[in-house]
Write a structure and sequence with these properties.
- The radius of gyration is 20 Å and the shape is globular.
- The protein is α/β, with parallel strands linked by helices.
- Helix 5 links the parallel strand 4 and strand 5.
- The strands form two sheets. Strands 12-11-7-10-9-8-13 form a seven-stranded mixed β-sheet. It has a six-stranded parallel β-sheet with strand order 3-2-1-4-5-6, with helices on both faces.
- It has 13 helices and 13 strands.
- Helix 9 crosses helix 13.
- It folds into two domains: about 120 residues, Rossmann fold (3-Layer(aba) Sandwich), CATH 3.40.50; about 180 residues, Dihydrodipicolinate Reductase, domain 2 (2-Layer Sandwich), CATH 3.30.360.
- The protein is about 40% helix and about 20% strand.
- Belongs to the Gfo/Idh/MocA family.
- This is Dehydrogenase.
Length: about 350
């Protein structure tokens, strides 16, 4: 049995989710001869110790202690502002790193991190979990197999059931950076094409405090790809029907929709239609539960050298460039070109 020790930094909402998923990996990986152990740390020591105790994991006072304990991989689930420093810690230790998106607060801050990773031969996987969702994977397979023909339209939707705390939104960078960046990433990943221009509009009809911190609660971006294909990316913080994430891909031969199932957060206005009949998802963690689990299993496989990096820092920064352009367009009211290169 091969032991893989993961060190997790940060046990807030997303960190607790990752801790639970890591602890559940053995049920999947033990038959492959892999035993996963978890050590974690957080500045909120009492909370972190409680999480560790509940999962049978270990607690250590700092990330330096995790490194000294000989972890095989570092999982970063802390606030965005700490990502660059912690990525460097993992790279310096010579171990693979998993970091929640984004790489840094903005693209300008992320570029030196990319250089540091390259210069030191670092291995860093960024957490864009939709790449592991069954629906998105099937849509990409169908497109690459030629089953859809050529794509003429794409419509991506991400709707939170309720907004996060205003305190979070004040430092999130805006709706496109915080939320729609996942759609920008998945559109690039699925089509294999770059988004070269964004034109965005937004509104505030919910809590006025969201506008007071410089954000919008609903927004729409018209995106243009490098081959001229167009698409839309929409997002809202107020979707009372449930957490709704979908992607409609219309091709010359066939169309597909990711996220259309019995838990889709909508109802038909047509007579006699009961679909969908299930309970809609309430949170992103529910909607992407399987994807988050698969993402962490993929990180273990990356550590063991059994797979290529499924989401590189360059990929993540490319999506962030589009999000930055969308935020700029939202502020200026005009279309914004996207700089597509992340190379030095």
């Amino acid at each position: 049995m091969k032991d893989v020790i993961l060190g997790l930094v940060g046990v807030g909402r997303i960190g607790v989710m990752h801790a639970n998923n890591i602890s559940a990996l053995n049920g999947v990986l033990n038959p492959q001869g892999i035993n996963v152990r978890l050590l974690l740390t957080d500045v909120a020591e009492d909370h972190a110790k409680g999480v560790a105790a509940g999962l049978g994991a270990g607690f250590l006072p700092s990330v330096e202690d995790l490194i000294a304990a000989g972890v095989d991989g570092l999982v970063i689930a802390t606030g965005t502002g700490t990502h660059p420093e912690l990525i460097r810690v993992g790279v310096d230790a010579g171990i693979p790193v998993f970091c929640e998106k984004p790489v840094a607060m903005n693209v300008a801050d992320a570029l030196p991190v990319l250089d540091y990773i390259r210069d030191n031969n670092g291995v860093v996987q960024i957490g864009h979990q939709r790449r592991f969702d069954h629906g998105y994977l099937e849509a990409k397979r169908a497109y690459q197999a030629g089953e859809l023909g050529w794509i003429h339209s794409l419509r991506a939707v991400t709707c939170d059931m309720a907004p996060p705390p205003v305190e979070f939104l004040a430092s999130s960078g805006g709706l496109f950076r915080d939320c729609s960046v996942h759609d920008f990433d998945i559109l690039r990943w699925l089509t294999g094409r770059e988004i070269v221009e964004v034109y965005a509009k937004g509104s505030n009809n919910g809590d006025p405090a969201i506008g007071a911190v410089g954000d919008v609660d609903t927004a729409l971006a018209l995106v243009t790809f490098d081959d001229g294909t167009v698409g839309t990316v929409s997002a809202t913080r107020y979707n009372g029907a449930g957490h709704d994430v979908r992607l409609e891909i219309q091709g010359s031969s066939r169309s597909l929709m990711v996220g259309l199932d019995e838990q889709t957060a909508m109802a038909s206005a047509e007579a006699g239609i009961a679909f969908p009949s299930g309970q809609s998802h309430r949170t992103f963690a529910e909607r992407f539960d399987q994807a988050y689990r698969s993402e962490m299993a993929a990180f273990v496989e990356l550590i063991l050298g059994r797979r290529e990096n499924p989401c590189t820092p360059e990929d993540a920064v490319a999506a962030s460039r589009v999000a930055d352009a969308a935020q700029e367009s939202l502020a200026t009211g005009v279309p914004v070109k996207v700089a597509i290169s992340v190379a030095r």
